[in-house]
Amino acid sequence: MPPLPQSIVVIDYNGGNLASAARALTRAAQDCGIAANVTITADPHDVLSADRIVLPGQGAFADCAAGLSARPGLRDAIVAATDAGTPFLGICVGMQLMAQRGLEHGVTPGFGWIRGDIGLMSAPGLRLPQMGWNQLDFIPGAHPLTDGLARDAHGYFVHSFALGGYDPATLVATTDYGGTVPAIVARGNRAGTQFHVEKSQQVGLRILANFLRWTPTPAMDAT
């Protein structure tokens, strides 16, 4: 018998980019021959039973955190599922929510899965938000999420806030925008991209395909 399709959930909390993220995941699965059912949901039971979890996000950290908390049981389900080892991918603000705190519009707690705060970028002489294509800097072969990417791979960024005070061990890729900016982070079975993989064409599709094939080891210790 053929293997059952992977259950991929895209978290719905009014965080934006839901449909485009779901379409990109469906396309990535088709391109690499993975059977997958991609569902947009806010149901905690769907999250707890999913094979993989994707958390998109755009806008302000505080607004996205509030949107998650407004859905009964949703945040707890994400924590419980990922604690149990379910692979997680955050996109843009979804990645930022992995951090300890957001400093936009006050101080807002994040999931605390990776060290650091999300603060306003320092980019002297450059426009904020960073908007457009920028090159990714990574070590080929160092992490499964970057498998098959060319050294000059670019991602599509739209953001004014970024992760600071981070643990270098969680960095998978960076970009340069007035200084080093975390672009892909990962710790155990939880990963995130500051750029929009769903808007990053073949590079984004490759990263999503890598995520669908990824078999990570959960991070057991607290940040």
Q: What do these coordinates show?
A:
- There is one protein chain.
- It is built from six helices and 14 strands.
- It has one domain (6-213): 3-Layer(aba) Sandwich (Rossmann fold).
- The chain is globular and about 60 Å long.
- The chain has helices at residues 18-31, 44-49, 61-69, 74-83, 93-96, 201-213, and strands at residues 6-11, 36-41, 52-55, 88-91, 101-102, 108-109, 117-120, 130-135, 137-138, 154-159, 161-164, 171-176, 180-187, 190-193.
- The longest helix has 14 residues, at 18-31.
- Helix 1 (18-31) crosses helix 6.
- Strands 2-1-3-4-14-13-12-9 form an eight-stranded mixed beta sheet. It has a four-stranded mixed beta sheet with strand order 6-5-7-11, with helices on one face. A two-stranded antiparallel ribbon has the order 8-10.
- The chain has 223 residues and is α/β, with parallel strands linked by helices.
- The mean pLDDT is 94.
- Helix content is 25%, strand content 29%.
